[in-house]
Write a structure and sequence with these properties.
single chain, alpha/beta, Alkaline Phosphatase, subunit A, 2 domains, four-stranded antiparallel sheet, 24 strands, 34% helix, globular
């Protein structure tokens, strides 16, 4: 067993990083490319932060681990809640390491609240309350932790010049690095994980400009990548003797031509009905405010009667022009009439349509079993036309793309975008709009460096599901037989011990025997800290 460092660069893509590295702008990443093994890492479907990082942690698809989106419907399409780590239905690799006595430090891993790790965790998105360091005593021992931030200050993005916003993101990552460095140097560990999420925040705003090389080298959006390269350089220089390093992203990034309004299409085909009353304002978490599609706008809520008047009087174009040229976004949080809605696209990132049937929803269901197939076929026809128009890339039924016992919370029909990103907004004028949008792509990055990995080679067919079993293999631990990923044999040197070693696959219940011992150890570890 060797120590392992894992560095996450949220949303990173080789489309951007390779040219920057080859130009000399990212010298440490270039060193790793020259002396390690790299390739494209295929994400989960959907390629969204929560399901992707949970797939990374479990090696399983959403049908097994149960995480599909940041938001989960419960018993009704109208009853939504944010997820937590308690919703993960499978053991994570860091829990299995815990069971066998290995120490894992986790910094900013999404869906890690509340912690499922007995050692040290600094939580990420969806953390509830003001405490994000576990155990709480670690903040007294490592004073830098008091400066920890999960989010950048999104209010700065309202300004026309986004430089201050980008500097704020850099400051967020500078603090995260200082904390990671302090923990790296002062606490014992076997596995060390840190995620730098600033790449995702910046790319949502200006990926099209980054990829087209529109910014000068000193621009703060560009400087973030220079900072991160220097942070990677520190970990590279201070790797323990014989340790391995992995750098990866949860998904990639690209610029889409515009937005397609899925619920508008469902409404046009009689599958969705909108209430005439205004939906009550619901703020689920601070995270929802941060990741809102219009987070850089001043949001003004329009009553439905005014919206209908605007539509009747052909004033929507004027409204859109006003929104385009001012920091104001007028919006209507219209509510689907669930009791009369057959199908619904819930969130901006879900990439899936729920059918309001007893198969998924006991309380809001209006579709009898014999009516399910006709409704499903109507939606398939809509998606088929979107695919033929290259608006989406492809679509699947839930059971065609996922396997497992946790399909209740995933949509009935899932799709991947091609040229347009899907939006759930209701009561829009058009089915789609042409306005460049920077958002997630299926293909992220993988890079491995260390004594056991190939040198200066590119590998193919890497999937995010393969990371967890590969980590278990690196720690000489048995691999649960129900895992979807495979050990990434193509990354190892031919003479590596891990290339020759045959992994042991065990029953998923194998690790249950260590639970009681783990619980006792967990209490002891937290008392020590």
């Amino acid at each position: 067993m060797r120590n392992l460092v894992i560095i996450g660069l949220d949303g990173a893509t080789w489309d951007l990083l390779l040219p920057l590295a080859e130009s000399g702008f990212l010298p440490n990443i270039q060193t790793l490319l020259d002396n390690g093994v790299y390739g494209i890492l295929e994400s989960s479907i959907p390629p969204i932060t929560a399901p992707a990082w949970v797939s990374f942690a479990t090696g399983k698809n959403p049908g097994k681990h149960g995480i599909y989106d940041f938001i989960m419907p419960e018993e009704s399409l109208a009853n939504l809640r944010t997820i937590s780590s308690m919703d993960i239905k499978s053991k994570t690799f860091y829990e299995l390491l815990d069971f066998k006595g290995y120490k894992s430090i986790l910094i900013n891993l999404p869906v890690s609240y509340p912690p499922r790790n007995s050692y040290i965790t600094l939580t990420s998105l969806l953390t509830k309350g003001g405490n994000y360091s576990f155990p709480e005593s670690i903040a007294k021992e490592i004073p830098e932790i008091k400066e920890y931030r999960i989010f950048p200050d999104a209010s700065l993005a309202v300004k026309k010049d986004k430089k201050e916003y980008f500097e704020n993101i850099r400051d967020m990552e500078r603090r995260r690095y200082a904390i990671a460095k302090a923990l790296f140097e002062n606490k014992p560990w076997d596995l060390f994980f840190v995620l730098f999420s600033g790449t995702d925040w910046v790319q949502h705003m200006v990926f099209d400009q980054l990829i087209s090389n529109s910014f000068a080298e000193g621009h703060p959006a560009m400087s973030l990548y220079k900072d991160l390269d220097e942070y990677i350089g520190y970990f590279l220089k201070h790797l323990p003797k014989g340790a391995n390093m992995i750098i990866l992203s949860d998904h990639g990034f690209r610029t889409y031509k515009g937005i397609v309004y899925i619920n508008r299409l469902l409404e046009e085909h009689g599958l969705l009905r909108v209430k005439d009353s205004l939906k009550k304002e619901i703020h689920i978490t601070e995270f929802e405010e941060q990741v809102s599609m219009f987070k850089h706008k001043i949001r003004i809520r329009l009553p439905i009667k005014i919206w209908n008047f605007i539509r009747r009087c052909n004033l929507v174009k004027l409204l859109n022009l006003m929104q385009k040229n001012t920091p104001i976004h007028f919006y209507l949080q219209a509510e689907a009439d669930v009791e009369n809605t057959f199908a619904y696209y819930l969130t901006f990132e879900s990439l899936g349509i729920y059918i309001n049937s007893r198969k998924k929803f006991e309380k809001s269901s209006i579709i009898a079993p014999e009516k399910y197939i006709p409704v499903e076929n109507d939606i398939i026809n809509i998606l088929r036309r979107l695919k033929e128009s290259h608006i989406i890339h492809d679509f699947w039924k839930d059971t065609d793309i996922y396997i497992g016992q946790n399909l209740k919370n995933v949509p009935d029909l899932i799709f991947l975008p091609e040229n347009y990103w899907p939006s759930p907004l209701l009561l829009t004028e058009n089915d789609k709009v042409n306005a460049p949008l920077n958002h997630h792509d299926l293909y992220g990055i993988f890079l491995a460096f260390g004594p056991d990995f190939k040198k200066g080679e590119k590998v193919e067919n890497m999937r995010i599901y393969d990371i967890a079993p590969t980590i278990l293999h690196l720690f000489d631990l048995p691999i649960p037989a129900d895992i979807d990923g495979k050990v990434a044999w193509n990354i190892f040197e031919e003479d590596s011990y891990y290339k020759r070693k045959i992994p042991e696959y065990v029953s998923p219940k194998y690790y249950d025997r260590f639970k009681e011992k783990y619980k006792i150890k967990s209490v002891i570890e937290r008392l020590k800290l």
